[in-house]
Amino acid sequence: MVRAPRAVEVTGPGGTETLAARAVILATGSGPKSLPGVAIDETTVISSNGAVRNERLPKSIIVIGAGAVGVEFADIYAAYGVHVTLLEALPRIIPIEDDEASKELARAFRRRGIEMKTGVTVTAVKPGGPGAVVETDGGALEAEQVLMAVGRAAKVTGLGLEAAGIALERGFVKVSPRMETSVPGVYAIGDVAGPPLLAHKAMAEGVVAAEAIAGRDPRPLEYANVPSCTYCRPQIASIGLTEGKARENGREVTVGKFPFTASGKAVALGETEGFVKVVADKATGEILGAHIVGHEATELIHEFALGRTLEATLEEIVHTIHAHPTMSEAALEAVLGALGQAIHL
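The chain above was modelled as a monomer; its predicted structure follows.
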């Protein structure tokens, strides 16, 4: 518990003691959220924490929430033969991703027998049937277990933050570009410091905070350049703006897309699901966003991450020779498509 600026009270087996330091970093992370009135007991209604500790497979499971966590666990349970029903309140699964990525994953899940219901509001979760009954505005569903995947909340309670004068914003600790809180000498990183709630973002923030504490002038994070990665099958990775968001922002865009069915390496690997899609400014060639669905998408996204960091244009990627046969050359092919110069389609 933060007792005073740069002092922390710690309670352990040996009792309670107060530790003082030149700087304090808050990295308490986040915990799973639930719907109002629905208690997570980690037996019938489980969180992602309980899901990884499950020692037996249920015959059926309802996953509430089809964001990254929801689709990842839907994929895992389906792979073990569990009947999975995936519920999402918004019109499509993985709603923060590009619309085409969402449709591609939905097709892949449908082929594997994962049942999906979108635009569904859950009104209650009660004991019943084989384990639980999930009541929705479209009717009741039954399953042996229910997995809550409706998001995560920062762990900010019980830490004495308010008494120490540490400001919160929308449930997260408010930080400066140097990751310093409203109290000098106290820093916050990771989930507790706000979205995106991703491990690699947290690590990068830790570097910024450490450099600030060491007296350096760290370069602030560019949050628009944090890759988003979803580890289901097929994998999904993205960076920057979706096509829809770019158009909403008034940008005139050009879009290139290359399917892995046309990739020799993907065919050789037997991994032809998905595509690479790039969204760019039509006039300048600035890479506004990139979206990949498919085998090792979370590895392939870094070409576009580096491109955005270096402010590369479509033309500069075109003039970068990509080895053949590789999965990575699909990125080049997508860029060629955005320029109207597609070769292998």
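The chain has a mean pLDDT of 96.
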